[in-house]
Design brief:
By secondary structure, the protein is of the alpha/beta class. The protein contains 10 helices and 8 strands. Its cofactor is Mg(2+).
Length: about 220
Amino acid sequence: MPPHTEVPGTLRAQRHDRLAAADLYLCTDARSAQGDLPEFLHAAYSGGVDIIQLRDKSLEARAEIAVLEVLRDVAAEHGKLFSVNDRADIALLTGADVFHVGQGDLTSAQARAVLGPEVILGRSTHSLDQALAAEADPEIDYFCVGPVWETPTKPGRPAVGTQLLTEVAASAANKPWFAIGGIAAGARLDEVRDAGASRAVVVRAIASAEDPGAAARALKEELG
């Protein structure tokens, strides 16, 4: 079966329906310092987050799997998607809905060889050429564009600015894509939307908020 053939009722079709409707994507660490991971995840999903990705380089593999099992169960309870970053073996072991890679990670063909056809594949892009390559890749289901602004979560990565969002919006319209990097409710989200992006990935805007659920609702309302 070709990679993008969808049969109504299949897991892949269900995941793609959720991806198509998604506009708010959260990346979070394991909340080890706060000790409130399940509560935080419930609040974020309840507030309107559509996809949550665990991104915590401090975790060893077994600890990452344990945290992802919590994320997987909370996501299922809310009927939302959860994402694994970089590690295809861990994505396979945890039954990930989404697997996300950077430019130097596994190719899409390699990821498919490990994970099969039902997992959603995403890729980070930092230029128009990379975005167009992701758009043209039959195995990639969505891509992210950024960082729009410099962010401490990606030290050393230069900001691409909102002009790239405008260029991508004018050139790549067949797949969902998300702006990422320094995005927050208010003026910055307004700039992102004015540039042509209708979906956003956030980190600190929710993860550092005193009330994550309220922060998610505010972002969701602005995106809507």
